[in-house]
Amino acid sequence: MLAYPQIDPVAISLGPLQIHWYGLMYLVGIGGAWWLASRRLKSFDSTWTKETLSDLVFWVALGVMAGGRLGYILFYDLQSYLENPLLVLQVWKGGMSFHGGLLGVLLAVWWFARRTDKRFFELMDFVAPLVPIGLGAGRIGNFINAELWGKATDVPWAMIFPTDPLQLARHPSQLYQFALEGVALFIILWLYSSKPRPTMAVSGLFGVCYGAFRFFVEFFREPDAHIGYLAFGWLTMGQLLSLPMILIGAALMVWAYRNEGAKRETVS
Questions:
Q1: Mean pLDDT, to the nearest integer, of 238-259?
Q2: 211 CB contacts (<8 Å, ≥6 apart)?
Q3: For the residues 132-156, what does the mean pLDDT come to?
Q4: Alpha carbon distance 94, 23 (integer Å)
Q5: Any known ligand binding at 214?
Q6: Half-sphere exposure of 107 toward its Cβ, with a 13 Å CA cutoff?
Q7: Cα separation of 57 and 152, whole Å?
Q8: Residue 90 pLDDT level (bands cut at 50, 70, 90)
Q9: Exposed site from 6, 41, 104, 179, fewest CB < 10 Å?
């Protein structure tokens, strides 16, 4: 068994002002996404300025924050927030939903596409390879917060988290998600999108890979105590929300390549 590293969730304390690692991870994700996007900006659209890109990053980040918070409230803990609405402001304690954040991003990209005369999926294909940076940073934030830990296990790398009332050795599922949703997903999408692909293909691959990775990790992650398993005695909320991503992502890839094939036949 590995010892859980005792990391203070508060990174910087200036009197009454406290800056939490969880919040800093969002800044890392947003900053990393902006830097990577700037490297590919000219190949995406040579007419775009850095100011245009900054606007896109701002609106996407806003979609992540608003959608992630609202998604968590709706999908995972609506009753608690109805009883105490001020919990909405306590983002340093966690409580963000990826699937809600994804919906926020979709709305932000749709709105920005209308402003810039871009097609929705053109922008989504550009944005999708940037997302794993934020996902990976967010999972590190979960680990530092000692939240969203895994099921009890006897694997050699199990950890006892200080927030666990039962003090059981558990899977460090946050690190599993960091490795898959952050590192592996970034490598797959970055390499795949480095060559020209049919419109929608990159977005589709993101949906398939993220959905599959999340579905897999949920087998090792402890379900939320107030929700538990929702179907068949083993399906969690995360898995139920990820299944549509896999199906829609696969459909987008099939559609993208069929359209590409039809265009080639028309030209020939």
A1: 95
A2: 242, 243, 244, 245, 246, 249
A3: 94
A4: 9
A5: no
A6: 14
A7: 39
A8: low
A9: 6
Q: Angle, to 10 degrees, between the axis of helix 120-127 and the axis of helix 98-116?
A: 130
pLDDT tens for residues 127-143? Answer: 999 999 999 999 999 99
Tokens of residue 91, six digits = 């983002």
- What is the structure's pLDDT at 260? 79
Residue 205 phi/psi, 5° resolution?
-65, -40
Nearest residue to 121 (alpha-carbon basis) of 106, 135, 99, 140? 106
Length of the chain: 268
Q: Is 113 exposed, middle or buried (0-12, 13-18, 19+ CB in 10 A)?
A: middle
Report the alpha-carbon distance of residue 76 to residue 224 in Å, rounded.
8
The answer to whether the CB of 188 falls within 8 A of the CB of 207 is: no
Residue in this structure with the two tokens 């900054």, named with its chain if needed? 54
Q: Which amino acid is at 27?
A: L
- What's the half-sphere exposure (Cβ side, CA atoms, 13 Å) at 171? 16
Distances (CA, A) of 55 to 50, 61, 62, 108, 167: 9, 10, 11, 11, 45
Across 174-183, average pLDDT: 97
Q: How far apart are CA 121 and CA 206, in angstroms?
A: 12
